Amino acid sequence: THRCLHLCLHMLKLKELHILLSAAFTVTPLCCPSRSSILTGQYPHNHGVRNNSVSGNCSSIQWQKDPETEAFPVYLSKLKYQTFYAGKYLNQYGKKDGEGVSHVPPGWDHWHALVGNSQYYNYTLSVDGKEEVHGDSYEKDYLTDLIANRSLNFLENRSPQHPFFLMLSPPAPHSPWTAAPQYQKEFSNVKAPRDGSFDKPGKDKHWLLRQPVNPMPSSSLDYLDNAYRKRWQTLLSVDDMVEMLVKKLESIKELDNTYIFYTSDNGYHTGQFSLPIDKRQLYEFDIRVPLMVRGPGIKPKQTLQAPVLNIDLAPTIMDISGVDLSTVNVDGQSFLSQMAPSLRNGTVRPFFLVEYTGEGHPTTDPACPKLGPGLSQCFPDCVCEDAFNNTYACVRTLDGKTDLQYCEFADTESFVEVYNLTSDPHQLENVLKKTDPAILQAMNQRLIKLQSCEGDSCRDVK
């Protein structure tokens, strides 16, 4: 199941029977390009989706005519899988800039996709290409519950002669953070954790990290704490969905034959380096994602520390289904061998790419006139979370010895950030000036190769 897209886990009904992949990363910390990577198994520079706008190829005609036709559901369909999708798809899905609600991506037999970005009430679905408008009744319209109920109905009515695949993508815990009525008073005393890089100054970091007021004013603290609580409240309905799904699989005697993936499309920050709330940054809190898996051949209650990327989900799902991975165009690799060594042999990657294309507005934000044009995602106290020149590429090594991150910005400064995450896990100190030039050169060369890699070359960089 999936969506889990936008999740930070806190309570899971899968906790007794799972493997936790503790070093799971997104290759880009933003919804639409990340989801496109999950579907295709490709880095953004190959599938072409750069941000959440149609001009950035989010559910554009170009996406629909090319990368979407090679997404993993297409291969499952060829193997006679019964496929089901429900929830948020891509941020611009269903808009007139594409083919509208009539467009059902290839490979999906049952299609219940949200038009546009995350909502809990008052939204439109494309149901197998037909428009379905919803209102504000909790019993009929609350989207997380609707996704859960329709997935149970699919499982009940599927053909037992063929395998099945479900991808569930509830809005939670994305804004507007609308919890179910029964959960709106939960976590009333919870605040965002004050540890790690929380409210630390962005010293020696890209200018976007140097602009927030530090320490944060009380108005920003109140805002992020409220968001943190509401996100937790919305996730209680996701917990209910997971529990219902597992119980349903058990009742139809398919639980032991089914792989369940629980993950997210990006991380999230609430107060780290004095940034109120958002994602889009190169730091661990935005690029790390939760990932739990259970299924045949997987020994329960394990934690794996080898790096796994969201571009690995598509090849892993195809590997499980029996697709010959040598015949598909993916940048990622199956991690089935890591989860179930008895089923597969495989290798662990030593480093990988994280890339992001910043977004900004050509004119000045009227609420923050002193900041000038080129910015976006401006929150309380005129702290902006993104900009045109928040465009970067990083190479991240994770080998259990010295874990490094090397990042270059595409800006007039050609700004560089380097972190030793072994000694500095919260990335408080940019060690560019303290790092051996030979190491910097090697990281730069790896980054250049990864930024132009495709297929096998993304997995074979030395």
CATH architecture of the domain at 19-338: 3-Layer(aba) Sandwich
Distance between the termini: 34 Å
Largest sheet: 5 strands, mixed
| Strands ordered across the widest β-sheet | 6-5-4-3-7
Percentage beta strand: 15-25%
Shape: globular
Can you tell me the CATH superfamily of the domain at 19-338?
Answer: Alkaline Phosphatase, subunit A
- Average per-residue pLDDT, rounded, comes to 93
Query: How many individual helices?
Result: 13
Class based on secondary structure composition and strand pairing? alpha+beta
Question: Helical proportion?
Answer: 25-40%
Q: Which parts are unreliable, with pLDDT below 50 for 5 consecutive residues or more? A: 1-13
Number of strands: 19
Q: Output the radius of gyration.
A: 21 Å
Family: Belongs to the sulfatase family.
Cofactor: Ca(2+)
Domain Sulfatase N-terminal: 14-323
Protein name: N-acetylglucosamine-6-sulfatase
Please characterize this protein's 3D structure:
The chain is α+β, with helices and mostly antiparallel strands and 462 residues long. The protein has a domain at 19-338: Alkaline Phosphatase, subunit A (3-Layer(aba) Sandwich), CATH 3.40.720.10. It contains 13 helices and 19 strands. The protein has helices spanning 31-40, 44-47, 61-65, 72-78, 138-141, 143-157, 207-210, 218-251, 284-287, 313-321, 336-339, 437-451, 456-459, and strands at residues 19-21, 24-25, 82-88, 110-114, 124-127, 130-133, 164-169, 260-263, 269-270, 277-278, 291-294, 302-304, 308-309, 351-356, 375-379, 383-387, 392-397, 404-409, 416-420. The strands form six sheets. It has a five-stranded mixed beta sheet, with helices on both faces. Strands 8-11-1-12 form a four-stranded mixed beta sheet, with no helix packed on it. A hairpin with a 6-residue loop joins strand 17 and strand 18. Helix 6 packs parallel to helix 8 (218-251). 47% of the residues are buried. The model is unreliable at 1-13 (pLDDT under 50). The modification 3-oxoalanine (Cys) is found at residue 31.
